[in-house]
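#struct-help
A.M.: can someone run this one for me? Single chain, 266 residues.
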Amino acid sequence: MPKKIQIAYSLHTLNAISTVLAVVVMALSLWLRYEWDFKHYVYELEAQQVLWTGPYILIAASSLTMATSILGSWATVIEDCQLISLFALASALSIVLGMAGLAYTLNHGIFHSDLTPWLEERFWVLFHEMDYNERSARILRIIQEDMECCGPSDWKDYQTFNKVLPDECRSPVTGNIAGGSCAEEFALWMEPRTGWLSGIALLLVVIQMGSIFISLWLRKLILLERSKDNRPYRLVVESAKTCDSKSNNSLKYVRVAALFAPVGFI
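D.P.: on it. Structure tokens below:
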């Protein structure tokens, strides 16, 4: 059946693309988890739950996608309807995980998200603790220097609370005061990283939706093909010679019971 072969090749292609994209999503998620500078920021800001929950979910989703793609390719080769159904169910679960992961990542990883107000609140805590907590003062100085920002909202925070403006708030080249909010600058610094990760994860989800549709279509064709070869009864015309004096060459009809072999559940 040429149509069935074409659909099978299409499913193989989508599974291969899904595997490649799943590897990319996992690599980016692991990079966000273990990249040294970013990991240092996360630990110092105590933002493990906010910034790492999304990548963790995407790591689980991409792992399931790779296993599911292998299952789908094998089920397509052997034309096993039960395995194809299992592939569709596993792909649906992977889609749910992927959507949850990318939604959380976008909601806690770009400028216009819950990340910016959370960071602003956290930087205010560090700002008020910097006079007596060396750890808070150190991380605030590091972020102000790396992000070229000054204060939780702007440099006037130091003036409002009668604090000495640190050298990290000034550009080492021009000496000008950085005017950006540390919460906003950090969120803008995060946005390209989480944006690319979420975009690739969304593309993977769309391709998996196509894989589910094609796999169910292929399963339907396989069942249809097997149902034609395994009908419960067939009417067979048999030519037979009889000893009846009325006719030496008559036709008789024999109903033959064909055995059913299980071909998967419908």
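A.M.: thanks! Confidence is low (pLDDT under 50) at residues 231-266.
D.P.: also worth noting: The two ends are 20 Å apart (CA to CA).
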